[in-house]
Amino acid sequence: MKKTLFLLLTLFVYSYSSAQLKVQHLVTENQVDPINIDALVPRFSWQLDAPGRQNVMQTAYEIKATTYAFLKKGKHDVWSSGKVVSDQSVYVPYKGEALLSGRKYYWQVRVWDNTGKPSEWSAPASWQMGMLTPADWKAQWISPGYVEDSVMRPSPLFRKEFSLNKKIASATLFITSHGLYEAQLNGHRVGDAYLTPGWTSYNKRLQYQAYDVTALLKEGKNAAGAVLGNGWYRGHIGFNPLPNLYGKDISLLFQLEVTYADGSKATVVSDGSWKSSTGPVRFAEIYYGATIDDNMQQKDWSVINFDDKNWDGVKVQDFRKDILVATNSEPVRKHETYKPVKIFTTPKGEKVIDFGQNLVGWVQLKVTGNKGDKITLSHAEVIDKAGNFYTENLRTARSQDVYILKGGGEETFEPQFTWQGFRYIKVEGYPGDLKPENFTAVALYSDMAPTGSFSCSNALINQLQHNIQWGQKGNFLDVPTDCPQRDERLGWTGDAQVFSRTASYNMNVHNFFSKWLKDVAADQYKNGSIPFVIPNVIGRTDATDGPGASTGWADVSTIIPWNMYIAYGDKRILEDQYASMKAWVDYMKTQSKSDLWNTGFHFGDWLFYSVNDDTDGSSAITNKYLIAQCFYAYSTQLLINTANVLGKSEDAATYTSLLAKIKEAYLKEYVTPNGLISSDTQTAYVLALQFDMLPENLRQQAADRLVSNIRRYGNHLTTGFLGTPYLCRVLSNFGHADVAYQLLLQDTYPSWLYPVKMGATTIWERWDGIKPDGSFEDASMNSYNHYAYGAIGDWMYRVIAGIDTKAEAPGYKEIVIKPTIGGNLQNVSADYETNYGKISSHWKVAKDTVLMDVAIPANTTATVYIPAQSGDMVTENGKPLAGEPLTETTTSGIRYLVTKVGSGLYHFSAITTKH
C-alpha cells in the first residue's frame, strides 16, 4: 500500500511539474504577430515558462503552420516540422512550401523538456507576408496635380472614395511615400506610427508599411486619405542644409487589399482617379519646425460625401517599385509625456516653460483665442548662465512650431512631419496666462521594447543610467542619430558603433540595427569605404569613393554586426553584412603600405580632453594613424570571427595571416622594445590592450602605464569617442577594477558624473558642455543629447552587475554572472530580458558578506562567479553549495567561487573575508 501511494505521489508530482511547462512569447522575425514579412524563410522563436522549477532545458520541439481554415479544425495544411531533437528555441527557420504574398499564416509549437515530457501546444501566433515581388504592387505612384508653392511647400492632401460591396473579413493597407505620410480611412488615422515610411537610402531601399485596417472599413461607401510631408526625402537635411537630396517630388503609393467573408477579394489603389489639395500644414521641415493654420482645415476631408469639386487631380508617376522593402524594424511612436515643472519669465522678459527632462518629440498645445492669433513655440535644451533662453547651439535649425488660430473655441495643436530636441520652450503670442494643463511634452522614439534595467546605492550613478537611456531614446528615431536638436540629426557611424553594445542592453535593438546596417551596406562606396553618415547625405554613394573611411567610424560595418550577433545570437545578421564587412577590411588593406595603414582622413579620438594652451603637453593627443592601425586589426579580427561562424574557412585563414602582419606592423611603428607606446595617452594604451595589439609580456606594464597616466591627470579620464568605451573594461580586465570605479565615480571635469552634477538629464556631446562657471562650450558643436559617452553603460551592466554571454554560445544561451564588487556600492540590481527570458543579477554587501540573487531563464545555463575565499564560505538558499565548485583569482586579486547552474532562481550568500 505504501509503495502504491509513493508511486501515485511520484506520478502526481512528476505530471504536475511537467504540466507547469508552457511555451509562450512566440515571435516571428523578432515580431509579435507581424503582418509585413518579406523574408522568404521566416524564423520562429519562443520562450519556455516553468515557474518554480530549476534546470529546465528543451530537448525537442515540434512546429506546425497552417491557414486559418485549418487552424479552426485543429489541423495544419502548410507545414509540420515533426519532432525535432534540438534545444534550439530561437531563430528556428520555416521549412515548408513557398509562402504567398499577402497571405496570413498561423503557427504553434510544443516542446519536450529534459524530463522527456511534452508541453501543451502553445496558443497560436500568426504572421502575414508582405509584397514579395514588384509585380504584387498594383498601385501607381501619384503626386499632387496642382502647381506647388516652391518656397513653403505646404503638405498635400490626397483623397479617394470607393465602395466595398460585401461583408468584410479582413483588410490590409500597404503604403509608402516619397516624403513622410499619415493615412486616414473614413476620418480615422491609420495606425499610431509617426515619421513613416522612415529613413533609408531612398534611391536603393524604400520601406513600405502594412496596417490591419479591418476595423476602419465598412460595407458600402468608404473614403481614403493621406497627407504628406517633405521629411528626409526632399526636405532640408545635412550640413548647410539643402533640399531635394533624393528627389523634388512628393508622392504616395497606396494599396488596400480586402478579403470578403465569402473569400473573394478587392483591391483599392492609388491611381489617376484620386484628387489632391492642401490643408492646415502650411510648412513642415525637420530642422525648422512646422506652421499649422487652423483656418486652412478642410473638415471631414477623408470621409465619404466630402465636397472635393474644387480639388485638383493627381499626376501618375513612373517611380521605382523594385526597391520597395517591408518594414521589419519598430516604428516611431509616442511614449512618455511630461507636464511643465516650472513656468517662468527670463531676465529678457521671455515666457519659458521647463518640462524637467531633455527629450525628443514635440509639445501638444491647448489654446482659446481669436481668429488669426499666431502662437510660436521655440525649443531649447538649456538656459544660459544669466537665466535666458539659449538656442545658439542649434545653429541654423529654427526648431519653431507656429500655430495660427481660427477662433471660436478651444483648439488643440501639435506639429506634423517634424520633431524637436528640447527641455524648454519659449512661448510667444499665447493669448492669456500660461497654465501647465495646456502644455504637454510628448516623447517620440522608435518603439523598441525595454530590455535592461540597472540601479544601485549611488544616486548619481542611477541618474547617469537614466541619462544613458534617455540619450538612446532621443537619438534612436528610426536611425541612430548623433543629436536630435540642431541642423544635423544624422546617422553618424562612429557614435552608433561605440554605443551599440550598451544600446542592446537597454532596449531590443535587433531589428533597429538590422534595418540600419542594410543601409550601411547599400551606401558603402564601390571601393569598400564607408561614409561618415548613414543614410549618406554628405557624399554620392553611386561614386567609387567619397567622404568616409575614418577609422572607428567606418568600422561600424564590422563592429555592430558582431555586437548584434553576440547580443542576440542571430547568425543571419552576419550573413547579410558579410560582404560589407569584407569589403571594408579589403579597403583598409589596399590603403596600407607594408600592412601599415597610415593614410587618409580620420576623426581620431574625437573630443578627447584638450586645453587651449597646451604648452605643458596636457592635451591627450593620440596619433590618428596609431588609432587607425588598431581598428584595422580589430575589424580584421571580427571578420575572422564571422568567417568562422559562417563556415568560411578559407577567408578565416587568409585574414588570420593578414592580422598577424597588421599587429607586427603596429609594433614596429608605434611601440618601443620596452613597451612604451609612441602616443603616451590613455586611448593609446586602451586600444592596444582591448584589441590585443601587444605581446603578452608587454600587456601588464601597458595597463600599469595606463593607470599612471590616469593618476597624472588627477584620477580623470582624458579619452574621446574611441577610447572611452573600452577604458573601464581594460582597467578591470588587467587588475585595476578599483581605478575603473574611481573614474566612474569621479564627479569633476572631465568625467561621466560631472554633467550629472551640472543637472544633465541626457548624455552630453562634450565632457564640459556647460563649464563650472555656467558658460557654454563652443556653440558650433555642443549638443546636450548625444549618446556616445553613454557607452560606459556596457561596463556597468557587464562588469558591475556582471551579466554577460559567451561568444561561443551567443544571445545568452550560455550566461555569465560575474559581478565586480567595489566603488563603495552597497547594492546593485540589474535585469535583462533575453530571447529566452529574464536574467537577474542583484548583489548586496552586508558587512563581510555578499548576498546574490540570480535568475536564469529556462533553456539556458549559466556560470556564476561568487566573490568568496572558498566553497565552505558559500551557501545557496541556506544550504551548502552542491558539487565541487572551482575557484578563480582575478588579476585584481578578487577571488571567486565558480559554479554552473541551470535555469531557476538562486540566492547565494558568501563570506568574503577569511576568519
Automatic annotation (TrEMBL):
Residues 807-877 form the Alpha-L-rhamnosidase C-terminal domain. Residues 1-19 form the signal peptide. It is an enzyme of class 3 (hydrolase). It comes from the Bacteria. One of its GO terms (molecular function) is alpha-L-rhamnosidase activity. Residues 345-445 form the Alpha-L-rhamnosidase concanavalin-like domain. Residues 166-336 form the Bacterial alpha-L-rhamnosidase N-terminal domain. Residues 451-800 form the Alpha-L-rhamnosidase six-hairpin glycosidase domain. It catalyses: Hydrolysis of terminal non-reducing alpha-L-rhamnose residues in alpha-L-rhamnosides. GO terms for biological process: carbohydrate metabolic process. It holds the Pfam family Bac_rhamnosid6H. Keywords: Glycosidase, Hydrolase, Signal. The keyword ATP-binding does not apply. InterPro entries: 6-hairpin_glycosidase_sf, 6hp_glycosidase-like_sf, Alpha_rhamnosid, Bac_rhamnosid6H, Bac_rhamnosid_C, Bac_rhamnosid_N, Ig-like_fold, Rhamnosid_concanavalin. Its EC number is 3.2.1.40. PANTHER family: ALPHA-RHAMNOSIDASE (EUROFUNG), ALPHA-RHAMNOSIDASE (EUROFUNG)-RELATED. This is alpha-L-rhamnosidase. It comes from Mucilaginibacter gotjawali. The lineage of its organism: Bacteria, Pseudomonadati, Bacteroidota, Sphingobacteriia, Sphingobacteriales.
